[in-house]
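Bug #2210: token dump truncated for Antibiotic biosynthesis monooxygenase?
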Amino acid sequence: MNHFAMYGKLTARPGQRDALADILLEAADLLKSNNDCYLYIVNVSDDDPNAVYVTELWKDADAHAASLKNEEVLASIQRGRPLIIGAEPIKLRAIGGKGL
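Reproduced locally. Full output below:
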């Protein structure tokens, strides 16, 4: 099993966290029909008013890369990009656990 997992922390411009989270939730809706995306969860932090965290699990890294070529996903990325002042992606290879 070589599933691709990614955790990402996005730091929004002050006051823009909810707008960014809304765009990411729209992206999650776009991924509902993508059978290679097993998990896409948008989280916010009670301790950081500007942080949005995304938890992703994919069939493999290629499936994740292919999703970024989807026109609707690209449009979401373009809408969200001006709201972001920092990004910390952590790319991982999921090897097992509950839910896999």
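Output looks complete on our side. The CA atoms of residues 12 and 83 lie 5 Å apart. Marking as cannot-reproduce; reopen if the truncation happens again.
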